[in-house]
Amino acid sequence: MNVLGVHGFDDDAGAALVCDGEMFFIPQERLTRKKHDGGFPEESIFYVMDLAGLKKPGEIDMVVFDSMGKQTGKMRRRLKKMGCEGKTISVSHHDALAAAAYFTGPFEEAAALVIDSRGSLADEMPDAPPFYASHPFSRELHSMYVGKAGRLNVLNRTFSSSGWGVGPGAMRVLGAMTAGFSKHDGEKLIALAALGERDDVFPECAFTDFEGSCLAEGEPEIDPRAEENVQYYSKLFFRNLPRRKQEWPIRRVHCELARAVHNQSSNAAVSMARFLYEATGFENLCVGGEFGLSCDFNSAPAKKTPFKDIFINPVAAGAGAALGAALHGYHVTAGLPFVPKMFSPCLGKKYSEHEILSALSEFPRVKYCRPRRLEEKAVELLSLGKICGWFKGRSEVCSQSFGSRGILADPRDLDIRRRLNTEIKCGESFLTHAIAIMADDAAEYFHICGESPNMHGILRARNGVKRKLPAVVLKNGTAMVRTVNRGEPLFELLDAFGRRTDVPALLNASFNREGEPIVETPVDALRFFMSSKIDFLILEDWLVTKKGSAHDSF
Fold first, then answer.
1. What CA–CA distance (Å, rounded) separates 20 from 446?
2. In a domain, 294, yes or no
3. 365: CATH
4. What pTM was computed for the model?
5. What is the pLDDT of residues 106-138, one digit of tens each?
6. How many domains does the chain have?
7. What is the DSSP string of 204-224?
């Protein structure tokens, strides 16, 4: 059975296909090169069809989309115009995110928690309680589910209501915008939070617990994601702090703001997870929604929830709603079997050697070769302080690098972080990036319980590691860690780097600059490489340098 999932007419559009259990997915921004593209994802639909070997939309048996902002009629018309003739259904945004969390997880039995900064309007959901459906602006804030034996059922939905309009996801957006970032820049708020030092500067952004639902003040009709409402909510939560303009310097107060928002929102999320544990008795938790990607649910050494195992899908937010919609249609609507297994976010295309060479021919100022020991050549350059663009395997479909589309560097060199942030990614200098480390060695460097393949843990470094790996460990002694196992694209490179330096780890940043999507095609990678200060590029099996550079003889 072929089930198409679509998320469109909202930030971060995308499309996914589930064909006889196999998943294909791509965010629209990767193809249009427009960051957070929120249109109708026609390019994405044809991309995943091509990956799945489908020739025309008529071969799709079912289309599922998440209803957002009363765009149902518009979505149906566009799908029909494309030639999608199969059954078309809509689900709530949170139902899609819950499906993306549970049906990509490794558990047959699990509780699921969705925390997002947005959700479907109550009156466009058939199962919304009449009280909420009567308010034209009430929408989902967070939702709880029970996943068991391949079935996914709603346990509780929390909607915005009069007097209580903000959940942890929206609070993080408000904090980011007040600090001078965009509504999409939650990861910047987290990095800034590590620079905060006090817990008493903004106590008003705390949440009230209503029997498992943590809420803060606000009104449903005053959208916390809207630019024009930032100052209204600053009066409620941030002591009327003026919104920082981009040209203004970041001051101590902004660091304390970030710390307060991150801590209070994370505490609320953990409180809800504890409630969910008591309600279900399950040992496993799946987390969906953009907030889950940045909340330290599973921080070591002591877990913050009673759950034994926690899975956070790195694409269970934004465009990932398209993947969840497809999985919801396949497993919930169609009732087809679910087999738990380890999830990889590499659901895009692997480009052929012909496509690689064709792209290289378009750039006369590059020099390239295919060395027999590619990893050793790359390690030689990395250990000299060079920065590497990394393009290998099927494209990743999330906003972070998981070993297929990344920028790699030596984590021992603090100046590399400055170079990467200011000269290559053109972002804020305080940003810190993830570390990719061989799974067998991770416990030597970090307090870690098990593995962290999807970077869902913000882990505390062991004594001395911050001095040893200053480019990846934050001021507060934590780092975003991804463990890498044998068989993954990065494993051989990490192994070679470890043998040369005694550090089996690399700084691993996303392959893009500020305001741009991660590179998708070989041409995207080469264009970025040639316009940046990246020193060399690994393009599948090819080592690429710039003619005239100090190391173009490799």
1. 39
2. no
3. 3.90.870.20
4. 0.95
5. 999 999 999 999 999 998 887 777 766 668 899
6. 3
7. GG--EEETTEEEEEE-TTS-T
